[in-house]
Amino acid sequence: MSGEAPRTSLYAVKVTIGQEKAVVEMLADRAATEGIPITAILSAAELKGYIIIESPTPHHVDELIRGMRHVRGRVQGVVDYAEVDRYLQARPAVEGLAVGTIVEIIAGPFKGMQAKVMNVDKVKEEVTIEILEASYTLPITVHADYVRPIKGVSP
Amino acid sequence: MSEKACRNCRLITRDRVCPNCRSSDLSEDFTGLLVVLDPENSELAKRAGIKKKGRYALRVR
Ligand SMILES: [Zn+2]
Which residue in A43, A147, A142 sits closest to A95, CA to CA? Predict the structure, then answer.
């Protein structure tokens, strides 16, 4: 039935940084072999040191993580589904980027600098940008994941 | 073969063709991991548009 409230909740579990995916795999194996009712387990690149477990009850999450390597414990309370939506949707990387958009570079050697979008390649998911702080204009092409539109600055 | 993720359905596989959707558009460049154990009752799977059990990437380049 559509529109029905989910019968599961999301629980955050603190884990060793760098071991998020490994823990997800181990817990998924355990849930399957021991028949613990866990519906899904997630590790997002942006969520360092935590994984998200979906289950009907926190009790089953505690049962699942008990004694497991690299697990540091469950965070009290539940995580809102809306909070994890942005990790789930295969949103195009170029969304929100257009010619003239002012962006911040979030990775690579120019990290932290502001730039102006000169061209958007939707197929390759690349943008050509010009760094604003540079004393000369040098267009560079980077993957769209490497830039983020700056809020409140419109072209 | 190393693991790749399907650009179409995001399933992670070692095969040359996605066993889920038969696409051969696979990528080694992927991040995130979503293991769906019970697709019928998983709200995460529903929100991610996933209908089958399995291991999925969250983002595939
Ligand atoms: Zn596929």
Answer: A147
Cα–Cα dist A104/A97, whole Å: 11
Strand partners, A115: A103, A131
C-alpha to C-alpha distance for A74 and A51, rounded to whole angstroms = 10
Min CA distance, B51 vs chain A (Å)? 12
Sheet holding A114-121, edge to edge: A139-143, A126-131, A114-121, A102-105, A147-149
Virtual torsion, Cα B7, B42, B3, A15, nearest 10 deg: 120
Nearest to B47 among A37, A52, A88 (CB): A88
Q: pLDDT tens digits for chain A (155 residues)?
A: 445 677 999 999 999 999 999 999 999 999 999 999 999 999 998 899 999 999 999 999 999 999 999 999 999 999 999 889 888 876 667 778 899 999 999 888 888 999 999 999 987 889 999 999 877 778 999 988 888 888 655 54
Whether the CB of B11 is below 8 Å from some CB of chain A: the reply is: no
Domains (ranges, CATH) in chain A?
A: 9-88 (3.30.70.940), 101-153 (2.30.30.30)
Measured in angstroms, the CA of B32 and the nearest CA of chain A are apart by: 4
Complex ipTM, two decimals?
0.95
Nearest to B32 among A6, A25, A43 (CB): A43
Question: Cα(first)–Cα(last) distance of chain B, in Å?
Answer: 19
